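Hi W.,

Here's what went into the run:
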Amino acid sequence: MAVTSPTVATPTEPRKRSATSRPPRQRSGSLTPWLFLVVPLGLLLVFTYLPVANMVWYSFTSWDGLDAVKEGVGFKNYVDIFTRPELFRVFFVSLYYLVGALVQLALALYFATILSFSTRFRNFFKGVIFFPYLLNGVAIGLVFLYFFRPDGTLDALLGVVGLKDTPLWLGDPSIVNYSLAGTSVWRYLGLNFVLFLGAIQAIPDDVYEAADLDGATSWQKFRYIIFPGIKQIVGLSLILAVSGALSVFEIPFIMTSGANGSETFVIQTVDTAFRYSKVGLASAMAVVLLIIVLVISAIQRKFFPDEKGDLV
Amino acid sequence: MSAPTAPAPTRITAADKMRGAAARFSRSVAPVAGPLATTAKYISLVVACAAAVVPILTIFFAAFKSREEYVTSGPLDLPQNWFNFSNFTRAFTDSDMLAGFVNTMIILVVALAGTILIGTMTAYAVDRFDFRGKKLVMAGFLLATLVPAVTTQVATFQIINGLGLFNTRWAAIVLFMGTDIIAIYIFLQFMRSIPRSLDEAAMLDGANRLTIYARIVFPLLKPAIATVVIIKGIAIYNEFYIPFLYMPSSKLGVISTTLFRFKGPTGSEWEVIAAGTILVIVPTLIAFLLLQRHIYNGLTAGATK
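Here's what came out:
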């Protein structure tokens, strides 16, 4: 289907198309599609690709974000990231969120599976489990600041069962990340759950009926019918969980501003850029994160090849 | 239960026997395990619902308590007077939440209109034309989905600043419009289901491409537009970082930033902060109750692209 000249269509081509039951498309006057694309492509270039290109450029300078001159410093910023432990350490905070995300996926899978079987008040349960995902991030941050504060909701609940000696959930550096990762699970569980439930319900009913006739147990139905049907979306969610854990920002920023050892890589990056005016170093940090996310996406495409290719 | 079994197949492996034994076992315990499993299932669902609701419920209680009442009662205690709205009025006026709602609405409407126009135009161009560089264009949009927006803000900030959009509503509007690739996919997928013969017929009647887009394709995309409005609308209502970074002026607060800034000076007056939080949650709850099914469908469409 290679076109040598954009303006001249060979006379045989339209016939070839109609053989595949596709009507001929307009090929001459090929300016028309570009008129439709000029604004979308302009925005895409200016607000996605130009920032990425600039970011790579800034990352090799010591720019402060204001100076007219951007002085090149070679790989110094990158060397700093990997040699100064205080810059790299924040990556380990992501591990809490990663474990949280795995718990979240397991819970989502469990609830999606049990709700795919006939259940009383199914829509009610579905709605309640899903609803937190829709909430405003700042509102969630405040709800959980109240939940975790001394003598707050959590302490009161633990007091009911007799636990009085509770730690500072957000003040103790050894606990704060568990609290924040837990908040993150609370917030995002609903999305995974609804996606899994949708995928399970897309499996035709007669498959289950056939399994019932064969006397399959619930576990067998899960193992041989449900799981293969949702493998794709589980794989996608797993990858998103990893890149999500690396780029956690809102919850810790709103709730603790990164205090008490809850600082994540993205909080540190934006602080470096906008509070300490080290745009060069911050750009290098952002480039490192971008590369990691791209590598993870490439791995995903290798292990879970999806139908996205047919969009082109 | 014990239907006459067919003659045994010629070769039975150990694994088959194990599986058979497991199935027989689970069928034999079914009369007991069934009710037990059902009970466990409902208990787990109730626990999950409690976990989802209790944090919000306690902040809801707090919002109705007076100062002395808040100090003397625990978080789990019900408020004495369910008609004590003074915290709500204080939160609404002190934080200038009205301005926040107005700014959010302005940004929401303009950015949504832009997203819909841009998304449908892109989908129309890509699906209905063959042109050189089409694969490159598609690859450009695809690759952009992989770039996490939060990482590039370091450099995007300079561009917004250079364009003179810093501290204006346009900063948020162009960023919401210019970076929405999911919407394009939703439109593209839907556009495929619109038969091309409609375009052809109109073209025979002498309609040009713009007329076909505006009069035929665009109206037929309504269901996809509804999906994008819901998904994108929720995302814009909830967005915190873009307005926080690009619109620091106190006059340009949106819902998220208004609530965030309100927390600072109000300090430990949790009953007032709680009321502000509830004010932000209520519109979401109403939208959810009204649009449940559309939200579920939209999210599924957006995630699987």
